[in-house]
Amino acid sequence: MRLEIFDSNINTQYPKPLKLKRTHLSLLNRFLYWAVVLVLFSFQSSFANNEKVSFDEPKAELIYPLLVDKFYQQRQNKLFWFAPGAQAAQLRQQLRSLIEREQLLSLDKDNFHYIVLHTIVDSPFMQVDSSTISLDRLYTDAAIALSKSLFTGTDIMTWMRYDAISKTQADVDNDYIIKQLLTVKSAGELNQFFNSLEPQKKEYVLLKAELRAKLQQNDTLQQNKRDVVQVMKLISSMNFFRWIHHFNFDKYIVVNIASTTLSYYENGSVQLNMKVVAGKIATPTPCFATYCNEVILYPYWNVPHSIAVHELLPLFKRRPTMIDAMNMQIIDKNGIILNPDSIKWSSLNKKNFPYKFRQSTGCDNALGVMKFNLTTPFSIYMHDTNVKTVFQSDKRYLSHGCIRLEKPIALGNYLLYNKLDTTFLKACYKNQEPVSVALDKPIPVFVVYITAQADSSNKVEYYKDTYSLIKVSDN
């Protein structure tokens, strides 16, 4: 039985299937790894006689060569894993044990040079030459790769359609890992360092305990598809958790598509929870990470072209009175509002529609009276809604991709430091000109697909895989 993250036929913007135990190394690298192993075994008799041995330099490619260079520059190019003394051998053994331990999180050992590391971990090197230096660098590369997986998550971009946050924080993340690794002096300190990389928050600890318990039921797990799916949900959710929380932002928003909820955090604690409406299966909300930079009061709804030609145009051609009933405006290419009576509607179709629809402002607007602008390449944002009853339903996959908010005014007050004029918003003025309010500092927003979460009673809740992104294969 194999676990995969599944790309449904409908939801084409999500990634292709991913095996739970993925091997990212190429076949060539695999061959080179085993070549190194054979060379090492060929010197086995020399090890037994405690002779000085010079190894061929390992050919395995480094995953993070620039970070490895930086590590040794700060150590004045001194060996770390093969330095004189017993501590070095203990460090090598500890790193190997840590790589084996983290298979719990579905981290593939082969992604951390495990074959080479496992073979030479106890080898008594008697001289320093180019091969020893290369092996020392290989160990450092493995340690950095494992650190990044535990600290920042692994393969996040297989989920994300857009990420405006990680690149801006990459140097900070890398500097932190290098700085902390440089302070390690013993196997115990190495263990403490890796333990510190994972979140210590209660929610994460509960997820990890649940995962450990399920994996201990290995025989049952192989036969129970439901448990296998839950394991996959736990692993992917913990991965999202590590990624989101490692940034340590003082304020941020997490929209969980899988639970159709939003959480607003300040100083690591949730200050506001609310229900949201996410995209329909046919028009799913993608995963992305970006910033909210402004709040727009009494926004226009500029109708996306696909909605305009496939939904509104046929409706207005059949029932022209709906244009006024929905407070819609027809805008030409020059931005001029046209009189609906001046348009020859019979000549228009989805291939011939040179106009735009725009809904006037007010409480009847589809965006309600508040829009939270998100800096993405998509026409997706968070907004109020003129249909509040949708939040009474447990099934809230109804939008074309945008995120409708249950408590937009409450969120606005947090982001604008309680300076929001709620009386102005509740007045429901019609045709009010939009008012843009820039945030003092853009707020990070993570729109993710977390299918397992610990609730307030310390129990793990599993959410339905509505977009069919997690699938179990019988192969």
UniProtKB/TrEMBL annotation:
GO molecular function: carboxypeptidase activity; transferase activity
Chain segments annotated as transmembrane: none
GO biological process: cell wall organization; peptidoglycan biosynthetic process; regulation of cell shape
Gene3D superfamilies documented for this protein: L,D-transpeptidase catalytic domain-like
InterPro entries membership: LD-transpeptidase_YkuD-like, LD_TPept_cat_dom, LD_TPept_scaffold_dom, Transpep_catalytic_dom
Swiss-Prot/TrEMBL keywords: Cell shape, Cell wall biogenesis/degradation, Peptidoglycan synthesis, Transferase
Pathway field: Cell wall biogenesis; peptidoglycan biosynthesis
The keyword Ion transport is assigned to this record: no
Domain L,D-TPase catalytic: 251-438
Domain of life: Bacteria
Active site: 383 (proton donor/acceptor), 402 (nucleophile)
Family: Belongs to the YkuD family.
The protein, known as: L,D-transpeptidase catalytic domain
Naturally occurring in which organism (per UniProt): Solitalea koreensis
